[in-house]
Amino acid sequence: MxxxxxADLAWLARLRGEPEEALERAGAALSIYEDLKxxxxxxxxxxxxxxxxxxxxxxxxxxxxxxxAREIYASLGDPREREVEEQLTLWRExxxx
Length: 97
Known about the structure:
The structure is a single chain. The protein has 97 residues and is mainly α. It has a single domain, classed as Serine Threonine Protein Phosphatase 5, Tetratricopeptide repeat, CATH 1.25.40.10. Helix content is 85%, strand content 0%. It is built from 5 helices and no strands. It has helices spanning 2-15, 19-36, 39-56, 59-76, 80-93. It is globular and about 35 Å long.
């Protein structure tokens, strides 16, 4: 339960324009999800981290985490794979992926 709260707090921090806090919370959530072996949670936390990294100007790290989130969603047959791919496509069009 703590992991989903941290991941959601990362999302809220991004909305408030606080990518540093978002990245910290997403990293904490990812660590918990990895320990618990919850792939959907790992993908969610990685994507929140990717979006925060992108906002901080850390484009290469953002792309790496988004690609990994997409791979996880794809392996699960999760439709969120498409959303992540759309984000990666936007970043590619901007010349960042």
